[in-house]
Design goal:
Layout: H1 3-25, E1 34-38, H2 44-53, E2 58-60, H3 63-69, E3 79-81, E4 99-103, H4 106-118, E5 123-129, H5 145-152, E6 158-165, H6 174-188, E7 194-200, H7 207-212, E8 217-220, H8 222-225
Parallel strand pairs: 1-2, 1-8, 2-3, 4-5, 5-6, 6-7
Helix pairs in contact: 1-2
Bound molecules: pyridoxal-5'-phosphate.
Length: 232
Amino acid sequence: MENKFRQVQENYAHIQAAIAEAADKSGRRPEEIAFMAVTKTVAPELVNCAVDCGIQLLGENRVQEYQSKKDAYRQGIPVDFIGTLQSNKVKYLIGQVRIIQSVNKLSLAQEIERCAARQNLKQDILLEVNIGGEDSKSGMLPESLPALLEEISQMPHVHVCGLMTIPPRTDDTRFLEAMQELFLQTKELQIPDTEMKILSMGMSDDYVRAIRYGSNLVRIGSALFGARNYQK
Ligand SMILES: *Cc1c(COP(=O)(O)O)cnc(C)c1O
């Protein structure tokens, strides 16, 4: 077997074991943590290799790349959208992806509502939170979350099922902790027609720590597929 496939198998086994250990340490079962394979720049045959290893969820960053690759993926595997999304591309995702995780502002939720209404379906979304308040990142600020959630929850064709974040790159766990707290506080608001069941937090560098702070969906790219090559 080609080397790159064997490498993905090894990486998968290693990450799966680390997830299981982290889950165990935080008193949860490994099955409670979703392991998403982030597929940007990765060839479909390598993505399928990960699926054959046991991956049950894919994450896509770019609408065009997703469209050009999706037919080559193993059929039936759910895909979430996790990238920066422009309103004019929303229509290509509605009813196609399981969850749009990267809803970072009200106007984007409004466009999802419009497109989902047209197709007469309800689109699951996560709200993306800029937990570090960084200028370089998009996402809703923690302090504006309750009001935005209140407003989005009233959209009949949008269903909020949790939060997503890309915390600042640091070994300091205070942002993970802040995110866990925000998730629990938001759950306690018990806003009608919203569910706080998914906390999407943790990437290749910090997934073990993120699980310790309550994440139940980790999004992993380079630790599974190797370093990304954007040239291709
Ligand atoms: C690329 C990406 C990831 C995966 O990043 P790695 O560090 O390669 O694991 C996770 N989440 C989002 C939103 C991404 O864009």
